[in-house]
């Protein structure tokens, strides 16, 4: 077994590998760029080596720097994590030449399966069912258009060396093929240094289901069940689960055996994932094989009890698999939510900045529930524009699917993140969605259910009563605390005031205190808008970020943020501003004039911090609705900004190469 390994990665996956290595008694070496000088993985490792500037192309993607770090520290092996150099056969060979072990498959397997075009050719030769498509070199947009017409629309344009949704476009028409081809090639070149793309038939309403495989150097191979990865946005996975709510035992076995056969065919030696698209009739088609550890591997670990990182290390050290296929049992259900630094209220645009608060829910086993959070940040960490926007992977396990979803819902409500925009509100709302809870999924789920983007869930009457009850309880404690401060001239003390008005958003609700007193812990009976009595029980204290307790028979975990003249309450995807006040105050408050937002309709604002890739118009040019105005790159993704209506460009305020802040004015219109 190795005594020291280097992790050629960053963030949560580097931390994840370090945890297992530490458990196995193996010393670890971290590498870091300028942007990651104070990163968590650097602090966790036994040693750390600086490898260059912030851009990945000058640090994490430079094999020579990784090898030099191995030599300087005496690391015997390298775990690549995912992304970066994890699927680059030349890196594996360079390590072998230096006598350093690559903790992953051999170069032949990486080449055969790691390249999407070559892997499909190989799969076809091995009699594996694949999606119809064109696997040859596509010369230009005209060639792409011709191929797409022969295959039949819709088609998927994909980067050969791609991953993580980058370099991928769906085209429903000839015009979309041309634009998608250009964008896919551009993203592929900037992200992977390889601009080759291929085209295949896009299966309508497919599920994305993948099989986890393990194989050693002694001819042993097995599969560890499947992961359902159909909840995606822009081809980027958002929520995963294991097992799939769709597969039956027969289909699972067929997919698993086909995946193992494919692994054996390329002499695969490590953990790997065979991805399939599955139609409504449970027909499955080989999509690609990822010759590395997957981002979503924790859900497989939770339902099988098998540490995949440990297995990768042991296989790389030459050990035989200690488990057989008959030993693999799927126990319970696991769900993973990817926490991204992106704003769900602004079409999920990337966000950067410092985590002024970062307080994930407590990890561990709590009765029948397990909570796990894989992360590479802590409070005070900087979310950089240079790397992927994923902040953490929150996982829950429970005996049943709905129990795991409910546990995830409460865990998300308890996850405090301030300083950046993030997608927790969307994830929390998703956990309440009837279609998700029923398991009626496809890769088009988000686009279909949120066609106009995401907006906070509007609470129904019962939920408004819960929110108003929380707001009343919070306000009573806030006022009581103020009364206890010394030197106050006119405290609110005296008899407990029974009648209140709670403003939830723009709606006013009456709140009556029926029974109870102000105390910590608190127990009150409230009536909202004349409804039935609700017993409110909580040990919340002013200043706590999470309000925990019960309202009626509902168990609640809601986030509380002070705002001007009230509180922000976030709960189950709802995000409201609440203000509890005395009736006379409410009467006067209704008379306050509304604040009018500034008019930005004649400006193109930069929707996220990013780099201007191109400006497609000139001053004085007339453009039609839908035409491209500019392209802005953020966190490795190119975002096309289009005209919302017919207009004339009056002034350009930015040029290609400019680095812009959010809401910077790119251009103005007449």
From TrEMBL:
CDD domains: biotinyl_domain. Residues 594-670 form the Lipoyl-binding domain. Its cofactor is biotin. It catalyses: propanoyl-CoA + hydrogencarbonate + ATP = (S)-methylmalonyl-CoA + ADP + phosphate + H(+). SUPFAM superfamilies: Glutathione synthetase ATP-binding domain-like (SSF56059), PreATP-grasp domain (SSF52440), Rudiment single hybrid motif (SSF51246), Single hybrid motif (SSF51230). Coiled coil: none annotated. Residues 1-451 form the Biotin carboxylation domain. It is an enzyme of class 6 (ligase). Pathway: Metabolic intermediate metabolism; propanoyl-CoA degradation; succinyl-CoA from propanoyl-CoA: step 1/3. PANTHER family: CARBOXYLASE:PYRUVATE/ACETYL-COA/PROPIONYL-COA CARBOXYLASE, METHYLCROTONOYL-COA CARBOXYLASE SUBUNIT ALPHA, MITOCHONDRIAL-RELATED. This is propionyl-CoA carboxylase.
């Amino acid at each position: 077994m190795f005594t020291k390994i280097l992790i050629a990665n960053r963030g949560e996956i580097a931390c994840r590998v370090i945890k297992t290595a530490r458990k196995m008694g193996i010393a670890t070496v971290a590498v870091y760029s300028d942007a990651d000088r104070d990163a968590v993985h650097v602090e966790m490792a036994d040693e750390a080596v600086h490898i260059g500037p912030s851009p990945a192309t000058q640090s994490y993607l430079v094999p020579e720097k990784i090898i030099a770090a191995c030599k300087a520290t005496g690391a015997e092996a390298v775990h690549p994590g995912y992304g970066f150099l994890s699927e680059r056969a030349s890196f594996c060979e360079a390590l072998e030449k230096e006598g350093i072990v690559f903790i992953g498959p051999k170069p032949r397997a990486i080449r055969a399966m790691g390249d999407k075009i070559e892997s499909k050719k190989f799969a076809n030769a091995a009699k594996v069912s694949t999606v119809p498509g064109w696997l040859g070199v596509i010369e230009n947009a005209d060639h792409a258009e011709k191929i797409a017409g022969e295959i039949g629309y819709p088609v998927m344009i994909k980067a050969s060396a791609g991953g993580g949704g980058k370099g991928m476009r769906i085209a429903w028409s000839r015009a979309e093929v041309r634009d998608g081809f250009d964008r896919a090639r551009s993203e592929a070149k900037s992200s992977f240094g390889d601009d080759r793309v291929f085209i295949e038939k896009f299966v309508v309403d497919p599920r994305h289901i993948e099989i986890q495989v393990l194989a050693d150097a002694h001819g042993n191979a097995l599969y560890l069940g499947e992961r359902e990865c159909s909840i995606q946005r822009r081809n980027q996975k958002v929520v995963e689960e294991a097992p799939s709510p769709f597969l039956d035992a027969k289909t699972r076995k067929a997919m698993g055996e086909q995946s193992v056969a494919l692994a054996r065919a390329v002499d695969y030696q490590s953990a790997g994932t065979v991805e399939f698209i599955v139609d409504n009739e449970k027909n499955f088609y080989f999509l690609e094989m990822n010759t590395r550890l997957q981002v979503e591997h924790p859900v497989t670990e939770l339902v099988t009890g098998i540490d995949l990182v440990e297995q990768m290390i042991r296989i790389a050290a030459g050990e035989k698999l200690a488990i057989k296929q008959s030993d693999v049992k799927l126990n319970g259900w696991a769900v993973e939510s990817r926490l991204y630094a992106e704003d769900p209220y602004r079409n999920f645009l990337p966000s950067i900045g410092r985590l002024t608060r970062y307080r994930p829910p407590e990890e561990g086993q709590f009765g029948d529930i397990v909570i796990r959070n894989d992360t590479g940040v802590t409070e005070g960490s900087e979310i950089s524009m240079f790397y992927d926007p994923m902040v953490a992977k929150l996982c829950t396990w429970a005996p049943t699917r709905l129990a795991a979803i409910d546990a995830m819902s409460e865990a998300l409500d308890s996850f405090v993140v301030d300083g950046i925009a993030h997608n927790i509100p969307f994830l929390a709302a998703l956990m309440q969605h009837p279609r998700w809870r029923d398991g009626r999924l496809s890769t088009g789920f988000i686009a279909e259910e949120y066609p106009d983007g995401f907006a906070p869930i509007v609470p129904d009457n019962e939920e408004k009563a819960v929110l108003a009850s929380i707001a009343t309880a919070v306000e009573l404690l806030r006022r009581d605390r103020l009364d206890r401060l010394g030197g106050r001239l006119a405290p609110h003390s005296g008899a407990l005031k029974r009648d209140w008005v709670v403003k939830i958003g723009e709606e006013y609700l009456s709140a009556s205190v029926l029974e109870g007193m102000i105390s910590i812990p608190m127990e009150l009976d409230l009536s909202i808008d004349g409804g039935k009595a609700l017993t409110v029980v909580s040990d919340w204290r002013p200043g706590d970020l999470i309000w925990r307790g019960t309202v009626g028979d509902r168990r609640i975990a809601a986030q509380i943020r002070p705002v001007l003249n009230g509180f922000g309450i976030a709960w189950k995807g709802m995000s409201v501003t609440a203000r509890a006040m005395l009736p006379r105050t409410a009467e006067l408050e209704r008379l306050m004039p509304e604040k009018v937002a500034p008019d930005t309709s004649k400006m193109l604002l930069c929707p996220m911090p990013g780099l201007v890739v191109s400006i497609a118009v000139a001053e004085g040019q007339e453009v039609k609705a839908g035409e491209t105005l500019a392209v802005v790159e953020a966190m490795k993704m190119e975002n096309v900004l289009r005209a919302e209506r017919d207009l004339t460009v009056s002034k350009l305020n930015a040029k290609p190469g400019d680095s812009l802040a959010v809401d910077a004015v790119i251009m103005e219109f007449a």
